[in-house]
Design goal:
alpha/beta; about 35% helix; rod-shaped
């Protein structure tokens, strides 16, 4: 009687290889994490910020931009100062802890920034501050 040769591969049951599946899922996770960082919403315009040290505001915030020509914008939308103050007051009334960042260009007039800050404080905005660049520039 001849012995029948059987392959060891024929006796195995079907199974899912989890190592390669975990590698693929890890790569998908990394892809989505990096995608979320690229989707960060920037509310203001690019301005040349003054150099100083300050605290980092995280989370939801209202950004008021003063460009080099002293034009005001709220989250990227141009507004006159009276309308801007009323709109900021309305936005902050919804959430009291929302910070207001005044992002003023280095070439903007100091007076318009101070007037805006004073009007925001008079309107009841508690957390209003100027946004600065944290970079050091060798005494510029």
């Amino acid at each position: 009687m001849k012995k029948k040769l059987e392959s060891p591969f024929l006796k195995r049951e079907a199974r899912v290889e989890l190592v390669s599946l975990m590698d693929v899922m890890f790569l998908v996770l990394v892809f989505f994490v990096y995608s979320v960082f690229d989707m960060a919403v920037h509310h203001g315009l690019k301005v040349d910020l003054p150099i100083a040290t300050g605290t980092l505001e995280k989370g939801e915030r209202v950004v008021v931009t003063i460009d080099a020509q002293d034009a005001l914008q709220l989250n990227g939308r141009p507004l006159p100062q009276d309308d801007l103050v009323a709109e900021v007051k309305r936005l902050v009334a919804v959430r009291k802890d929302t910070p207001v960042l005044i992002s003023g260009d280095r070439k903007a007039s100091l007076g318009i920034g101070i007037e805006l800050l004073a009007r925001l404080k008079a309107a009841g905005v508690e957390k209003a501050s100027f946004q600065v660049s944290g970079k050091t520039d060798g005494g510029r």
